[in-house]
Amino acid sequence: MILRRPSDSLVLGFSPGAKYRVAFTDVTETVHAISDMHQFSPAAEYVFGGTMAATALMAADLRRAGESLGVRLDCDGAAAGSYTEYSTGGHLRGYMRRKVLEEYDADPPANHEQLVGSEFRALAYLSRPGSEPDGKSVFRVSPPTFRNLVETYYLESFQLPTWANVGVRMDSAGVAKAMGIMVQCMPDGAMQDFVERVGVFTSEEALARVMDDPALETARVALGLPDIEIGTAVPLEFRCGCSRERSRAMLAGMPIRDLEEIAAAGAPQVVSCHFCGSAYEFPPEELREILAARKKA
Ligand SMILES: [Zn+2]
To answer: pLDDT tens digit string along 155-167?
Structure first.
């Protein structure tokens, strides 16, 4: 490759001549895995595929163990919103607020506006390991395209000029391919040239060429950057970071009054994971233990 691999990836490269960073991502298989788990209808899968590809591009700087970027979108379209998350190591997870959007299933891309509405209200949450502060960006994306989500995030959060393109191809079964391309002008890069080349970097044709043939040479020609070098390639896959321990910590963090109520009920409390469906059960004696520890603190 670059992207000549059967599985999903996030590939980072660089054009030394222009001093542009480039990134490519393919999230198709992961989108299928998550969609099968949640039973998304094709239109929900379409929106999810686009937001997941965008999220992978937005996470291009995540390297250290324990970092994650969560992207929550709310919109006034039929899809209502989504949550997508990338964790270092290439682990993806997420869900849609509405899983079935039958009315739009026949041709989701043609119904993009009805699905997402007039704008995305976005919250990007960057979790960092240890004692470092987490980063939070709140921004609006209008028009609410997947491409604009990536570009707005980098510009508003990092003042990093970015051109992006996200493609979600559909077939009768749902998402056939979900990919994204991004080009960023580094601080010492050729800015004027970068602005002028928006039409090339974001053209449907360039995106289609890379989607048809995700090879380095194709990307170089399609983007008009013949010197692109590939740096890192991270394989992507669905993985949920939930655990009984984390669910217990979540319970322990609830307001004391709510904890008292749960403990007083004397029944086991089940905490289910939104992302993977795992259920963790906490017996009454453990709930009383959690409450006692909480009162002591
Ligand atoms: Zn889970």
So the answer is: 999 999 999 999 9
Q: How far is the CA of 274 from the centre of ligand 1 (A)?
A: 7
| Contact yes or no for 183/58 (Cβ under 8 A) | no
Query: Could you give the angle at which helices 204-212 and 216-223 cross, rounded to 10 degrees?
Result: 170
Distance 281 CA to ligand 1 centre (A): 14
What the chain holds in terms of domains, given with CATH numbers, is 9-238 (3.55.30.10), 244-296 (3.90.1280.10)
- Say how many Å lie between the CA of residue 90 and the centre of ligand 1: 16
Residue 96 CA to ligand 1 center (angstroms) comes to 15
Strand order in the sheet with 162-171: 162-171, 174-185, 20-26, 9-15, 229-235
171: CA distance to ligand 1 center in Å? 29
Strand partners, 107: none
11 Cα to the center of ligand 1, angstroms = 26
Q: How many CB atoms lie within 10 A of CB 293?
A: 10
Indicate whether 111 pLDDT > 80: yes
**pTM of model > 0.90:** yes
- CA–centroid distance, residue 240 to ligand 1 (Å): 5
Distance 297 CA to ligand 1 centre (A): 28
Q: Do the Cβ atoms of 152 and 139 come closer than 8 Å?
A: yes
